[in-house]
From TrEMBL:
Function per UniProt: Catalyzes the transfer of a phosphate group to glutamate to form L-glutamate 5-phosphate.
Top-level enzyme category: transferase
Name of protein: Glutamate 5-kinase
Family listed: Belongs to the glutamate 5-kinase family.
Record lineage: Bacteria, Pseudomonadati, Pseudomonadota, Gammaproteobacteria, Alteromonadales
Stretches assigned to the PUA domain: 276-359
Residues binding ATP: K10, T168, D169, T210, G211, G212, M213, A214, T215, K216
Amino acid sequence: MQREQVIVVKLGTSVLTGGTDKLDKAHMVELVRQCCELKKQGHHVILVSSGAVAAGREQLLKLCGRSLIDKQMLAAIGQGQLIHIWQSLFALYGVNVGQMLLTRADVDDRERYLNARDTLNALLNYDVVPIINENDAVATNEIKVGDNDNLSALVAILANANKLLLLTDQEGLFTSDPRTNADATLIGEVTHINDELRQLAGGSGTNLGTGGMATKLQAADIARRAGVEVIIAKGAGKNVILKCISDELPGTRFLKLTAPKDGRKKWLLAGPKSTGQIVIDTGAISALQNKGASLLAKGVTNTFGRFERGDLIDLIDNKNQVIARGLTRFSSTEVNKIKGAHSSQIGQLLDYDSGAEVLHRDDMVLL
Ligand SMILES: Nc1ncnc2c1ncn2[C@@H]1O[C@H](COP(=O)(O)OP(=O)(O)O)[C@@H](O)[C@H]1O
Ligand SMILES: N[C@@H](CCC(=O)OP(=O)(O)O)C(=O)O
């Protein structure tokens, strides 16, 4: 048995409804049983539970539209039902649950990120199972994470988890959508996530899910860079949660990468959306990737979007591939004034003296 682990289990709508328009309470009982077995073995379990919109639709007993406001209203109705069911089922095993409803705004700001992390850790320290969902009722487009796959990656980083299980209605990631291609084959293990792999991960196969495999791949890429092993598996699979800590690993496994040691850098992986992009040349890419360098103005060729000093931005190559992300020390206006310039010229170009780095190494994570 592996030593105590923190395991985040993301349960998609497809798992919680079994593909119907109602919550599958019998299957939820089975999922709770497995979570409590893990806890008995000394592990910590965190649930990221979809299903609020589905539960709301079930309550409202009439068809609603699919607009954002309709979904927010359904989620507001359904979330209460959802947490009530989880609370009652875990109580059968004498386990308490704690609800956390998050939006991206809760992690955009580092103080709020640390606050959410502390609450999560306090729940775990008191042997409580945190049950997390997006705060759909108020999550407007500007502030929402948008899908629970990416939310679960963010939670895995907040909790410093060992494993993230993305449970869905397929065995794992296939070479194409098995709903539309009977010849699609299961991919057992992923060591690199590249454009070729992203191409084969499509959207949701039903009108219930939100992100499909595309968001699961995004989530896997973020979490593994933070040192979290990710498994995509079938939520209806026998003992699927228990198997995730045995050698009989089900589904598709994404090997973890070495996590950044610095907590700030983990926040950069999980935290804010980038507000702009800086295009850098091959010399700068090599210096960042091979010499642990900061980004100097000399290596900047262009910018996209408007951003201010301190914003999170992406560093991209001339093919739009994201090389790194970090907190810029100059606004987009200033970067456009100094791009390509030698560090000694910056004071002249900006009429004030400042550091030479556009992005300092300490405020950057490589992707
Ligand atoms: N390459 C792929 N491999 C497996 N499933 C895929 C792939 N591409 C698209 N899909 C679709 O993604 C769906 C799972 O995502 P989604 O519908 O959002 O479920 P969930 O509610 O569990 O998040 C599958 O049912 C399938 O139709
Ligand atoms: N927050 C929404 C779920 C959003 C979501 O990502 O759904 P899914 O793709 O089914 O995991 C809800 O509770 O209905």
